Amino acid sequence: MSKYAFVFDLDGTLLRNDNTIHPLTLKILQKRHQKGDILAIATGRGIKKCLDVMQELPFLNYFFTSNSTVMKNLETNQIIVNGNLELDAYEFLKNLAISENLIMQMDTLEDSYILYDPNKHAHLVDPNRLMDLQSAVLSTWENADQGIYQRKETILQIALRTNESISEKYLKAAKENLGRKYEVVLTNKIFVDINPKNISKAIAVEYIKEHHPDAEIFAFGDSSNDYKMLEAADFAITLENATDDLKEIANVIIGDNNTDSIATFLQGLDKEQDE
């Protein structure tokens, strides 16, 4: 019997809009684990914003966070850091967020910062798509500055949260000012993600290929930061709610993230093997 490896994005893919995993999907993932398949998450979220998912999925093998800037092996607790941002990125994005009234989210190796005011930033947040704001611990600029300048924390990723009507404007600004030195990508149509150079979720697929060379790798995603991951996988699955660029390269398009479409797809693999 073939061994499979499954790599899932979180927001808009494995997670429903209310930040939960469909019960049937959860059940099927546990069965895949019992069969000996490899299970991994590759997300734009920072590692501290994934603790609740790690608790809900204790049988995962790997967690790739901040668009694979960090990898955690959940079997050995080994953490690998693949790069970092420097002060120029922090200072430019901080000034842009303050001057343009944007939400800024920053992940460091030591902490996670969400610079968000529910009153000032109400125009940026769809209450039906809170994502990691749903359980967020909010920060202040003073606290963020202390983390960077005094505690000298290692910056893994910074994201500006905008909305769909203005996201391209800030994507362009970030690319023009930071794109030569860092990776800049639009995620979920609203986040402008800045990561270290040569960082993408394809790292998750490459790592699994290296350590599990006999496994056939299936990658699931919905947004532009998943593009390279789906390209690198043996089989690319995207969802009905995915961006057009992902749908163009997908082997299969399944239902949207609020349904049991991932579970149904995984169950179908067993039927194919039996035939």
From TrEMBL:
Cofactor(s) this protein requires: Mg(2+)
GO cellular component: cytosol
Single GO MF annotation: phosphatase activity
Pfam families: Hydrolase_3 (PF08282)
InterPro entries registered for this protein in UniProt: Cof, HAD-like_sf, HAD-SF_hydro_IIB, HAD_sf
Database matches in SUPFAM superfamilies: HAD-like
Family: Belongs to the HAD-like hydrolase superfamily. Cof family.
Protein name as annotated: COF family HAD hydrolase protein
UniProt organism field: Mycoplasmopsis agassizii
